[in-house]
Write a structure and sequence with these properties.
single chain, 221 residues, mainly alpha, 7 helices, 2 strands, 2% strand
């Protein structure tokens, strides 16, 4: 076998057996998601509010009052947000795939839930809420809200720590996200605003993924 082929196989094996590559994917996912919101929001002529506006408003392709009234939505750089959704989702999924063999928690329900949440990010990017509202809600927002936080709860049932996540921390974050989801759909925003409570739903998964990734990168695994 040629030396180049051996080197390629070794690199692929390293990717599939090392937490490092997956950890980097998760950190980059959170960074891209945050940067996409900051960049797209900065382009609004009418100020974008992280409290009053939904995350999906940043990906809206048209301008006007949302659903005939309420908040005004106009995102000139909507492509940035929609590309950000896709990149975030791909990186979340890639992190799961790369860590699947070396992180036992990801081989169970927790891994499936995180994988589905990553796919939901991708769908959100390809189906902006103003153009494909039903697809965006049913195949993007709901799966992301639900599976992202259920995955953290499923992880908490594993009999070990510091692989995918620690039991107590992930359970707490998952519960926070699920409670926030119920409040969001019930229009109870606890003073945070519609966009604020939505972010409490969405961010727990990314926060835990980044925490786990940074722990692994410090260990050098």
């Amino acid at each position: 076998m040629a030396p180049e082929a051996v080197g390629s196989r070794s690199f692929v094996a390293w990717l599939l057996e090392s937490r490092t590559a997956g950890a980097c994917s998760w950190v980059l996912a959170a960074i891209f998601f945050l940067l996409a919101q900051l960049v797209a929001g900065a382009a609004w002529t009418r100020p974008y509010s992280w409290a009053s506006h939904n995350i999906s408003d940043l990906g809206a392709t048209s301008c006007g009052p949302w659903q005939g009234g309420g908040r005004w939505v106009c995102s000139p750089w909507h492509e940035v947000m929609n590309i950000g959704f896709v990149i975030t989702g791909v990186l979340v999924v890639l992190g799961v795939v790369l860590r699947w063999r070396c992180d036992r928690a990801l081989a169970g329900p927790a891994g499936v839930c995180v994988l589905l949440a990553g796919v939901a990010y991708v769908v959100a990017g390809f189906a902006p809420a103003d153009k494909h509202e039903n697809v965006h809600v049913v195949l993007a927002a709901l799966p992301l809200f639900l599976f992202g936080n259920v995955g953290l709860g499923a992880c908490s049932g594993t009999p070990f720590t510091l692989e995918f996540c620690s039991s107590s921390d992930s359970l707490l974050m998952g519960v926070v996200g699920l409670v926030a989801m119920i409040l969001f759909f019930g229009s109870h925003y606890l003073g945070l605003g519609q966009g604020g409570i939505e972010r409490v739903v969405v961010w727990p998964l990314l926060v835990v993924l980044v925490a786990v990734a940074l722990h692994d990168l410090r260990r050098g695994t």
